[in-house]
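Sorry to interrupt, but I need a hand with the structure work. Can you supply me with one protein entry, sequence and fold together? No commentary is needed, just the two lines. Leave the record below and I will have a look.
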Amino acid sequence: MKVLLDENLPHDLRHRVTGHDVFTVAFKRWSGIKTGALLRLAADDGFDVMVTLDDGVAYQQNTASLPLAVVILSALSGDIDDLLPLVPALLVRLSQIAPRSFARVP
């Protein structure tokens, strides 16, 4: 699965999301792009899912027109130490997520 980590997540998290092709928004040089445009751009580039801390994305985007799946992480902060405990559940969620849907971890 091709996974995009939103710009609100640390680059080092990509090394923990094993078994997938993981890229960051910064690596793709897509920083600052609004969420809807970012999702379309990612889908056009072959991404299957975007992982983010932005809980608002589920309310801002229409599921019927969602171009790829989105996983929303619920963490105290975007600090890697707060995110690492979520990685096992994220990996499970990535293996189960339906295309063009929203999911939350935990």
The domain at 2-105 is CATH 3.40.50 (Rossmann fold). The beta strands are 2-5, 21-24, 49-52, 69-73, 102-105.
